[in-house]
Amino acid sequence: MSFDLVFFGGTGDLTWRKLMPALFQAFRHGKLPPGGRILAVARDERSDAEYRQFIRERFPEVDSAKRPSDEEFARFAELLHYRRMDLSQPEHYAGLKQWIDARGADTAVLYLATSPYLFPVVCAQLGAAGLNGPKVRVVLEKPLGHDLASAQEINRVVRAAFAEQQAFRIDHYLGKPAVQNLMALRFGNALFEPLWRRESIANIQITLAEGLGVGTRGDYYDTTGALRDMIQNHALQLLTMIAMEPPSTNDADAIRDEKLKVLRSLKPFTPESVARDVVRGQYKAGTVGGEAVCGYLDEVKVPAGSHCETFVALRTEVQNWRWAGVPFYLRTGKRLAGRHAQIVVNFREVPHPIFPGSARANKLVIKLQPEDGLELHLLAAKGSAQGELLAPVSLDLDFDKAFASERVGAYERLLMDAIAGRLNLFVRSDEQEQAWRWVEPILKAWEADPNGPRPYAAGTWGPPASSAMVARDGCTWDEEQ
């Protein structure tokens, strides 16, 4: 299948840091369909050769395992092209259409790796230029809006130019192998489904923790914050995949219908429940990995006195028959004690313990990063001379070891799906808008709160209030167990 893949924002960080390395890996793995062209567009003048050199110079900054040899890059670079475009000029879109139509590839994928405020401009211009035919797909990178109103406006402009089946709203967490294995775990095996309900599960925790601070992106992050950056999209998508009902088929809309039902079933927030069930924090100076680091307010480009949150923890429930009364705890933050993303399913204790020490409940840990695998925590008899005392043991499945071949990265998988037209791992507009609708009461409550976020030292797990919140339910975060 021949294809043209066009990156708007072709010289931006996202393109050279994430997208081009992912495409190279697909090329290296033999997964990139033959007969493809990759076109980068941006405002400055440069030739194809100059752009290829631009990318080659930046590849050493990516993961060493993904760096190409000179010979590998030379072969990959034959696919790369560059075109100058001013995204406000209609004639430049007409020129792009001529470039695409001249070859007549089977499909054209237009990836908007630009600032979100440009999405409406670009989509409107693409529609006006006729770059929205049946063979065209448009990929929209997050954040998709700043609030519900802006998300709805972006979707209105996108829908005016493209059918819903042509719009690929990307959330790179959905491309992670462990997330795909979450679907396989639930719907490809009979083992867990009878237990996947309120009668067996005590609570579910989703943690997306980062050890890094905001770096040089302080100005961008300060207008976004942890709630918009991580909870509204990544964390809620993970929650829907954990809580959704079994879809009727593996069809994209069957899956997304069930995810939407979960979002609509989330317990809505009120000003009172925001104060009780949501904790926001901001990191202060501390130590991460043995290195002293500054606080958020001392980071580059962060305005003085900012109330931007760098940490969020919240409690919610899915109000349906399967999950009624089961707390879902979501947590994310920067400058935390470590970098890891995981989902912890804590099962209920046995109804009548007959062994000493058997009060400890079982749990399933789904590890997303940096490791990729599953841990099932059980109790087993130690067989000591003092009697059958129980001790915790774990069954640990490392997917990298279980599958000998190199795992496909998130962006690699999603780019290949976009080229092939597979929508299963992309977000539909009604999902996205419902997620914004659910977080908006939190944003409004914070706007009315003069106290701002709670401080926490860099290198810790966030404000103590986060632990106190789950303790009200008799629970602890996973690292405290």
From TrEMBL:
Pathway named in the protein's UniProt entry: Carbohydrate degradation; pentose phosphate pathway; D-ribulose 5-phosphate from D-glucose 6-phosphate (oxidative stage): step 1/3
TM ranges: none
Binding site for NADP(+): 43, 86-87, 142
Residues noted as binding substrate in the record, renumbered to the chain: 172, 176, 210, 229, 334
Keyword terms: Carbohydrate metabolism, Glucose metabolism, NADP, Oxidoreductase
Domain Glucose-6-phosphate dehydrogenase NAD-binding, chain residue ranges per copy: 6-181
Gene Ontology CC annotations of this record: cytosol
GO terms, biological process: glucose metabolic process; pentose-phosphate shunt, oxidative branch
Reactions the enzyme catalyzes: D-glucose 6-phosphate + NADP(+) = 6-phospho-D-glucono-1,5-lactone + NADPH + H(+)
Catalytic residues (positions): 234 (proton acceptor)
Any one GO MF annotation of this record: glucose-6-phosphate dehydrogenase activity
Keyword Oxidoreductase annotated: yes
Every Glucose-6-phosphate dehydrogenase C-terminal domain range: 183-477
Pfam families noted in UniProt: G6PD_C, G6PD_N
Main EC class the enzyme belongs to: oxidoreductase
Enzyme Commission code: 1.1.1.49
Stated family: Belongs to the glucose-6-phosphate dehydrogenase family.
Function statement: Catalyzes the oxidation of glucose 6-phosphate to 6-phosphogluconolactone.
PANTHER family referenced in this protein's UniProt entry, alphabetically: GLUCOSE-6-PHOSPHATE 1-DEHYDROGENASE, GLUCOSE-6-PHOSPHATE 1-DEHYDROGENASE G6PD
NCBIfam families: zwf (TIGR00871)
Stored HAMAP family: G6PD
Record protein name field: Glucose-6-phosphate 1-dehydrogenase
Organism: Pseudaquabacterium pictum
